[in-house]
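A reminder from the course coordinator: this example appears on the midterm review sheet, so study it carefully.

Given structure:
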């Protein structure tokens, strides 16, 4: 006989976090199944199914209670005692929650997971493994599997119905700043020069924290390892993680010199996933943490979420005994930082800004300081690094969404390109996502998915009821126009840049969110596509293939432009000058690397470089905080590296050697992945290399001889 009182008692537990489970010694516990107990706690609105008000969701719970009381009994009505006894307490807890949630929904959408288990003694190990996986998935999601599946059902229905999430909003261009490295004058509409923004950023460098989102492997690039381990360029062979590490350390060193406070440490947090976590830790270990102090680098690991097989949010199974899982998205980073107590720790330590970076866009470090400066000058709580966006381009845009009836619900946020055009087509002149005739670009800046957040507002927002769990979405690929069956399983996803929804919820109209726009060449060239996909894109007329080779080429070009700005006689590669190597247009040279240890500001570049000329076939690598190069005459390859407290002046140096060049990999050649994804290797035939590590003052003249002056 079904125990109706028992079933009703269980309902308040279904949407609670599984971390609320207590031992049977607790006075407020109720029996869930043979030998298993749980604690009654208040239901937090943040863990309710998405959609509707709190009152509406209470009504939904009442409806669910009726369904449970009339249709189903406890978990023991489904799982035999023999099978139940096989499971651990945590397995019993999670499985009970899943079964009772499923029964409360009235459609047994998950019965394929727990139904028709063979009797005890048959596949017992597999049953235990499934129960443990359910416990893992239940414990890793705020509110557990019931909350996840409730949200999924609501979002899948909205998707099938074609619900417009922006129906109650109108879009406008938000407040922001437009900066150009090469333009000395301020933008008349926004008011800051690049130099002013960068200098403002320098005032806050010691109070920053960096967060690197790195949960993905390089499979899309044709690389089986982690993307952070990929070499940004073949001149220095430094991987992405090392480039970011050296930039942070250069900022930290500058903070020491400017403040006289040698104790300043700029923390780095890396968000990994199950796929990338062990490889990331090994990369750090193998490279002695890339120069970071012990404890300066922290790792938080995100969990995967359940894949969904249909519009009813049925769990997708890899096999009878394993639930299929998929990545949840980089939006997890906010809740993870909250869960680990890091944001409150930083706030109490006096840190002022958190800088979020993606894993394979090395150019973004150019824009960190000026963006920080804009955030400080304009008191932005959140500031998105942006680039000019072509109308109709498949890239998200930053927009201000004005709520039609409630100004407190208005917010500045990323709007995906497939949502922007319908939104703009429904307002104003109804022309949709079209270009501004004066600029040729969309008036809505393109989102580069790197952000700077003010710590006080961030801590306040994360302490809110959602605890950093950003609003999720689903993006199912339907088999046909009936929108009932999927081509492949989907899942709930979340994006880091959707945190403004929580700012708006916690701070209302006080939330001050904006953007800082830079030229694309200066800040944006991610490596995300395989060589084959890049070649296909180029063949269709694309100019941003997003391959390892195009990212490397763009890195050289942006440094060409910096040297040109400093007064060096150097050719800057234009689009017409690019040459195809392995099907991807790249710069013929010169290949220039200005390491973070040499310069992280425009002012440093101008002060450390004076005159000189560099030929197109040349390669130049400069690293050293007190290195100055004057009147260089380079035709070949020159590499100079100097250590801390090494004051080195190079004046009139003449370099003539064979240098470095690229060699295309023959089609079908058996080469390592890291070579295949570029399609070429670098022949390092001859170079002048100068390395100075002993503190002192040095001079290097035309002949390349190193003379220690003191």
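Designed residues:
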């Amino acid at each position: 006989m079904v125990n109706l009182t028992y079933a009703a008692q269980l309902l308040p537990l279904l949407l609670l976090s599984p971390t609320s489970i207590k031992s049977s010694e607790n006075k407020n516990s109720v029996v869930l199944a043979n030998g298993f107990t749980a604690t009654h706690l208040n239901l937090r609105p943040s863990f309710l199914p998405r959609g509707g008000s709190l009152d509406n969701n209470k009504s939904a719970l009442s409806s669910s209670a009726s369904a449970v009381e009339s249709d189903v009994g406890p978990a023991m009505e489904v799982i035999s005692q023999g099978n139940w006894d096989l499971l651990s307490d945590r397995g019993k807890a999670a499985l009970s929650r899943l079964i009772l949630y499923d029964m409360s929904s009235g459609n047994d959408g998950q019965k394929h997971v727990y139904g028709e288990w063979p009797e005890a003694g048959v596949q017992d190990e597999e049953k235990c493994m499934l129960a443990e996986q359910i416990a893992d998935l239940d414990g890793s999601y705020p509110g557990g599997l019931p909350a996840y599946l409730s949200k999924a059902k609501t979002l899948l229905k909205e998707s099938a119905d074609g619900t417009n999430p922006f129906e109650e909003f109108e879009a406008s261009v938000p407040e922001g700043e437009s900066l150009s490295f090469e333009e000395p004058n301020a933008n008349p509409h926004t008011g800051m020069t690049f130099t002013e923004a960068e200098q403002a950023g320098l005032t806050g460098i010691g109070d920053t924290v960096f967060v690197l989102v790195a949960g993905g492997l390089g499979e899309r690039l044709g690389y089986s390892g982690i993307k952070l381990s990929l070499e940004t360029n073949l001149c220095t062979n430094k991987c992405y993680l090392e480039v970011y590490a050296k930039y942070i350390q250069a900022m930290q060193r500058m903070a020491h010199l400017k403040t006289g406070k040698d104790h300043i440490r700029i923390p780095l947090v890396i968000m990994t996933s199950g796929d990338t976590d062990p490889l990331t830790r090994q990369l750090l270990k193998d490279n002695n943490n890339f120069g970071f102090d012990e404890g300066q680098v922290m790792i938080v690991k995100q969990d995967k979420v359940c894949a969904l097989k249909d519009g009813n949010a049925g769990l997708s199974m890899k096999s009878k005994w394993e639930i299929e899982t998929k990545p949840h998205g980089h939006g997890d980073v906010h809740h993870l930082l909250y869960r680990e107590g890091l944001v409150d720790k930083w706030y109490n330590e006096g840190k002022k800004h958190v800088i979020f970076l993606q894993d394979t866009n090395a150019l973004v470090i150019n824009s960190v300081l000026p963006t920080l400066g804009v955030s400080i000058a304009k008191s932005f709580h959140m500031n998105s690094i942006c680039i000019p966006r072509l109308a109709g381009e498949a890239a998200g845009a930053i927009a201000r969404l004005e709520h039609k009836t409630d100004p407190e619900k208005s917010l500045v946020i990323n709007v995906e390109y497939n949502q922007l055009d319908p939104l703009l087509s429904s307002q104003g002149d109804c022309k949709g996502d079209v270009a501004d005739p004066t600029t040729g670009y969309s008036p809505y800046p393109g989102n580069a998915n790197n952000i700077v957040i003010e710590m006080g507002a961030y801590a306040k927002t994360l302490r809110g009821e959602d605890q950093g769990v950003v609003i999720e979405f689903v993006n199912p690929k339907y088999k046909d126009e009936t929108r009932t069956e999927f081509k492949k399983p989907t899942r709930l996803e979340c994006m880091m840049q959707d945190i403004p929804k929580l700012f708006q919820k916690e701070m209302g109209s006080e939330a001050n969110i904006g953007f800082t726009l830079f030229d694309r060449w200066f800040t944006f060239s991610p490596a995300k596509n395989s060589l084959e996909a890049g070649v296909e894109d180029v063949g269709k007329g694309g100019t941003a293939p997003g391959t390892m080779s195009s990212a490397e080429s763009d890195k050289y070009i942006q440094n060409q432009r910096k040297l040109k700005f400093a007064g060096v006689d150097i050719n800057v590669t234009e689009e017409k000058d690019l040459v195809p190597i392995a099907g991807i247009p790249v710069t013929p040279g010169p290949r220039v690397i200005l390491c973070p240890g040499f310069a992280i500001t425009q002012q440093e570049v101008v002060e450390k470089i004076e005159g000189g000329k560099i030929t197109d076939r040349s390669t130049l690598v400069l690293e050293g905080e007190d290195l100055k190069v004057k009147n260089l005459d380079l035709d070949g390859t020159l590499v100079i590296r100097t250590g801390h407290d090494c004051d080195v002046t190079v004046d009139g140096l003449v370099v003539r050697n064979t240098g470095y060049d690229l060699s295309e990999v023959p089609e079908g050649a058996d080469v390592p992945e890291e070579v295949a994804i570029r399609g070429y290797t670098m022949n390092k035939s001859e170079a002048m290399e100068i390395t100075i590590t002993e503190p002192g003052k040095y001079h290097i003249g035309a002949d390349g001889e190193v003379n220690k002056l003191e």
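Confidence is low (pLDDT under 50) at residues 1-73. The CA atoms of residues 389 and 422 lie 17 Å apart.
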